[in-house]
Automatic annotation (TrEMBL):
GO terms for cellular component: cytoplasm. Substrate binds at residues 163, 192, 249. The record marks 192 as: Important for substrate specificity. It comes from Tsukamurella pseudospumae. The record marks 111 as: Important for acyl-CoA specificity. It is found in: Cytoplasm. The lineage of its organism: Bacteria, Bacillati, Actinomycetota, Actinomycetes, Mycobacteriales. Coiled coil: none annotated. It holds the Pfam family HTS. Transfers an acetyl group from acetyl-CoA to L-homoserine, forming acetyl-L-homoserine. InterPro entries: Class_I_gatase-like, HST_MetA, MetA_family. This is Homoserine O-acetyltransferase.
Amino acid sequence: MPVTVPHDLPARAILEAEKIFVMSDERAAHQDIRPMRIAILNLMPTKITTETQLLRLLSNSPLQIEITLLHMASHVSRTTSSEHLEAFYSTFDDVAGQYFDGMIITGAPIERLDFEDVDYWPEMTRILDWTATNVQSTLHVCWSAQAALYRHYGVGKHEVPQKISGVFAHRLTGARSPILTGFDDDFLAPHSRHTDVNVGDVEATDEVEVLAVSDDAGLYLAATTDGRRVFVTGHPEYDAGTLAAEFLRDSAQDASIPVPANYFPGDDRGAAPRNRWRGHGHLLYANWLNHCVYQETPFEPARPEVDQA
């Protein structure tokens, strides 16, 4: 089934060229079906690239999905045109009274800042708190995973001596969760961050289960037992060349930035990287849509029943 997006969204043409079924919002209006409503709070500077990456993963499902793109009202983007944001994005205030079946909050290259020093942190806390009553399941990626763990459970982050960048091997912890359905015991996924959280601190919450870890990259996947909050510290949505582009950007400013680990074939930065995590990324997002969103959300688009305590 298709992902429903605005007719002129740049990602639509890219995905259609890949033979991915994307439906315009005009055509979707004539469908007699209740689509899953998914909000994407896009904090990444390369918003069009991130839109495309996430929509590609969300399309790998039999569900019809209606996408709402969100950006921060309290932050001025320097890398995405105001025309693009005005045409395709809403702000939190525009949707605060609505209910969404699922929400994805992306990462952002600001992890070295203390949370309270981020210019949009007050707005971010409003959104994180709002998800408890207005979203059935929220998928937090990279920086937003750390931000949500901090906001909801008081789990802090710490800066690592060297940026965690590359493609790393992960293993399942043995915890049982529907989101792990079909996972290999060992799998690969990319990371790109300067900070980390301690696995023990996450386990100590007694509310969040650690589902997958890496010996080299630390925590990767965690979730509450009810699936309403999912935390992914890596970037399974990345294309083959995304880490290379980030490395070129960062190394132009800091020559000490390490080459992404286990990424370039033969560690030759001139060689074209190969995507070795695509299958895992599609499975993770499909499982989240099915087990955490579709199987749990009420049919009527009203607020879910949650424990207000």
